[in-house]
Design brief:
It is a single chain. The protein is of the alpha+beta class. The chain has a single domain, classed as Jelly Rolls. The protein has six helices and 19 strands. It has helices at residues 2-20, 48-51, 67-71, 113-120, 139-142, 303-314, and strands at residues 55-59, 75-81, 89-92, 125-130, 148-149, 158-164, 167-173, 178-186, 190-198, 206-207, 209-211, 217-220, 226-230, 238-239, 246-252, 257-261, 264-268, 275-282, 288-297. The strands form three sheets. Strands 1, 6, 7, 9, 15, 16, 17 and 19 form an eight-stranded antiparallel beta sheet that branches. Strand 13 (226-230) and strand 14 form a beta hairpin.
Length: 323
Amino acid sequence: MLRAWFAVLALAYSLVPAIAQYQSFPPGVFGGPAAYAPSSGGGGYSGPGDAISGAKAFYSCARAYNAAYAAATGNLCDIVDTSTGGFSCTMKAATNGFADLTSLLCTGGTLSVTTFCTVTHAAGCSVTQMYDQSGANSCTSGAAPCPVSQATLATMPTLTLNALNSLPCVTFAGSQALVSGVSLTLAQPISFGAASKRTGNFTTNANIIGDSGGNVTPFYANATNSVKLWAGSNSASVTVSDSVFHGLQFLASSTSSIINVDGTDTSVSTSTNGFSAASVEFGYTSLIATMCEGWFYGTALTSGNRTSLFNNMNGSSGYNGGL
């Protein structure tokens, strides 16, 4: 009898794997799927547009807006020889999401960006255009993207190849700016963001990214270690240490405005200005800073959204702890 009972148990246990194919057993139990931790898709690139979609514009010479833009090896920036303004080259995203500095993209497919900017053109490279990677076509009444550019060599920012996390960023030296050739109308709320480091003009107001008409823009304030938000009136200042990279975010939403530094919100108040048929401006002629990216959304991003975007900026698909 005992031998027969063990035979029945053995048969029942032998059927468990087959039954498990048709039952939703908990992970790791009775032959169910192995226990697992949540995955972010196998460790592939995930840009800010994957974290929070819907940006109105996104600019960076360092990385792609989202995984789709990376997979398509989308355009990031146009660069030229700093000494002459000639020999244009288009920087692209690699499929890993970051700027492709090693493929033969320049001079008819014979030089990498690194060689182009350090050997062939030893004076370095200047940035003549940053592409709007968002795909939103927000400018000129919703019919066109909003790239920012500069035709005059003396007022082009330069490209710093190894600025942050071994990635190239745009450096402004106090007389440069990139401006869209098309206009944008956008009412509050507007959420701005940037990865940047101010390195000079510490007591001069200098816009980061915003409306070239001066209607709404976040800016480094005319006092050391501080940023403010202008939208018809100035917000209070918020402390941002100079000469150090930060992840900055700003919400222009009247009395519910926010300045976020490295993931921490501070409530501030402004007036109600938005973009008013004005060009987008990246950087400003009084700005001395290195800018790795800048963007804006036509919505009031939530505290959770801002946390997600900062974590993305500072994570493995961004600047990897450099903020």
